[in-house]
């Protein structure tokens, strides 16, 4: 059996504010193989790492991310001393120490993410293997596949492994990313026999982590990377 990859969900969400540099550093210190993060484009065009479409839940501000400038976003506090990071800042922090699972959460993120990946591949020694780009959004997956079929895609689903599999075929994805509640030993095996990796989320309870290990998934995302 090959190694099951340990992936820090939004860094180490259970321990530090999600999607912050501190959270990613904590997960790196726990020895993760990968970091999962969520991206949106702000009004000045930069890619920022934040889960929601608004800043309301995770910062001391309010408003929609895509309508705010980077300066406005950077001025916000995330649970005290933390700030919203750009994707570039996270890539620089990770520095090829692990792979990045970039989730295209916001709309119109595929093009700028692919451009930034190309920049890090051309200038900073990254390779396509250092990235997996995932999304629930058909449009972003389609755009990403059309721009560059070399980019490794992961199809996110919380509804149906079968549908993820269909999209995986359509977009030549490397992986499916189903919620762990959708998985059985049998559907994991079938997906793997069809050539897809299975990366599952967000698995926090020890008994669920054990079950996913028994199913021999390829990677597990957790808010508690140390439990993996
Ligand atoms: O990428 C896996 C997982 O992060 C998807 O759901 O809502 O946590 O972004 P969510
Ligand atoms: Ca996510």
Give a brief description.
The chain has about 230 residues and is of the alpha/beta class.
Overview of the molecule:
This protein is an alpha/beta fold and 228 residues long. It has one domain: TIM Barrel (Alpha-Beta Barrel), CATH 3.20.20.190. 32% of the residues lie in helices and 20% in strands. The protein has 8 helices and 10 strands. The protein has helices spanning 21-29, 70-74, 87-94, 110-123, 138-147, 161-170, 185-193, 206-214, and strands at 5-9, 34-41, 47-49, 85-86, 99-104, 131-135, 153-157, 175-178, 197-200, 219-222. It has an 8-stranded parallel beta barrel, surrounded by 6 helices. Strand 6, helix 5 (138-147) and strand 7 form a beta-alpha-beta unit. Helix 1 (21-29) packs parallel to helix 3 (87-94). The radius of gyration is 17 Å and the shape is globular. The relative contact order is 0.15. The mean pLDDT is 97. The protein binds SN-glycerol-3-phosphate and calcium ion. Calcium ion is lined by residues 36, 38, 103. SN-glycerol-3-phosphate is lined by residues 9, 36, 38, 51, 103, 134, 156, 177, 201-202, 221.
Spell out the CATH superfamily: Phosphatidylinositol (PI) phosphodiesterase
Distance between the termini: 16 Å
Strand content: 15-25%
Number of domains: 1
**What's the CATH first level?**
Alpha Beta
Low-confidence stretches: none
Q: Would you give the CATH topology?
A: TIM Barrel
Write the layout of secondary structure elements.
Blueprint: E1 5-9, H1 21-29, E2 34-41, E3 47-49, H2 70-74, E4 85-86, H3 87-94, E5 99-104, H4 110-123, E6 131-135, H5 138-147, E7 153-157, H6 161-170, E8 175-178, H7 185-193, E9 197-200, H8 206-214, E10 219-222
Parallel strand pairs: 1-2, 1-10, 2-5, 5-6, 6-7, 7-8, 8-9, 9-10
Antiparallel strand pairs: 2-3, 3-4
Helix pairs in contact: 1-3
The structure holds SN-glycerol-3-phosphate (G3P) and calcium ion.
